[in-house]
Amino acid sequence: MTATTDSRDRRPRRTTRRRVADAGRKEELLRQAEDIILSEGFTAVTMDDLAQRLGCSKATLYSLAPTKEQLVLAVTRAFFRESAAEIERAVAAEPDPRQRIRVYLAGVGTAMRRHSHAFYDDMVGYEPTARIYRRNSETAASRVHELIDDGVRAGVFRAVNGQFAAQVVAVAIDSVQSGTLLDATGLTAGDAFSELGDLLIDGLSSA
Q: Are 81 and 136 in contact (CB under 8 A)?
């Protein structure tokens, strides 16, 4: 009896190592695309530009996202998700309820240094990314409110309208990101958030 060979057996098979390598390559390309978009904005950047600068084919780039718009959304979501996770790790490591607000705001300032005014302008001018920005701004305001309430319960902050204070912080964050507050004061983003932290802690202090 003659043995037969199934033609499907001749097809190259993707090993686990190959799949991991491919996933790692895509992750690295996405990270590099994120750096470009955060630095330069996305309105003037084309997929052709990105493919050339990343040293990959357009087919590979489109494997990250089917359209430029989807790539921009992925980058924007990743920026806020990764920034929030890093900030929360720093807050969790701070035992003093008074200082957690300062740590939180310093983390926001650090995250903001990753993106340019060009990216901010593009982000707020494009409705899909503007929605992501608004949701994260609301989350930031809510988080500051929680930190204020934690301080009140711990007895280190006096009872105040936490919602009002949190919204003031949200407005200040937006003004720093847009550059309006920095242009008016001559402060850097880091200095602005340091001053904001001092104002909050001094104004909320129960002592």
A: no
